[in-house]
Structures are given as C-alpha cells and as structure tokens.
Amino acid sequence: MIRKAQDKGLDAVAEIYSHIYDFEEAGKVEIGWDRAIYPTRAKTFGTFYEDYARKPAAGYLRMDTNAHNKNARAMYKKLGYKE
Q1: Is residue 40, in this structure, part of any structural domain at all?
Q2: C-beta separation of 19 from 28 below 8 A
Q3: 25, 33, 59, 81: which one has the fewest Cβ atoms less than 10 Å from its Cβ?
Q4: How far is the C-alpha of 4 from the C-alpha of 13, rounded, in Å?
Q5: Cα(51)–Cα(79) distance, rounded to whole angstroms?
Q6: DSSP letter string over 31-49?
Q7: Over the stretch 40-78, which tens digit does the pLDDT of each residue have?
C-alpha cells in the first residue's frame, strides 16, 4: 500500500536516519552517509537526489529498485525516468 506520508511517519524516518548517522560517525558501520549531505526531514528523497544530480560534478543519476518492486518502477517511469 502506498499512502501520503504523515508527520508522525516522517519523524520516525528522521529518527532512523539519525541513528544510522550516529553509528556511521562513531565508526561502527561504514555506509558512506554524511549528515550534511544526505536527505533530511525537510527534503524528500526524490528531490534530494534530483538536486544532487544537477550539480556539475554529477555525471548521471542512478536509482536502483528491486526488479520485483513494480510500484517503485511504475512511479519512476511516471516521473520520466527510464530503465
């Protein structure tokens, strides 16, 4: 089921990201995320990556989905992305 995000859900996602950043910064995991770069609650994931791809240093934008994730693939196609 896909539904519009609610503030409560966004707060939960922000909290999960905060924990991931904490582990990354403490050297407990190596994911390559940077709190100053990656998406925040104020910016959606899609717009974050599209803005990032517009920067001169970015040669292209690649977003992966599982081949079985038909909902995500349909959404990206509707937004103009190509496989």
Answers
A1: yes
A2: no
A3: 59
A4: 14
A5: 15
A6: ----TTTS--TTS-HHHHH
A7: 665 666 676 677 777 777 777 677 777 777 877 887 788
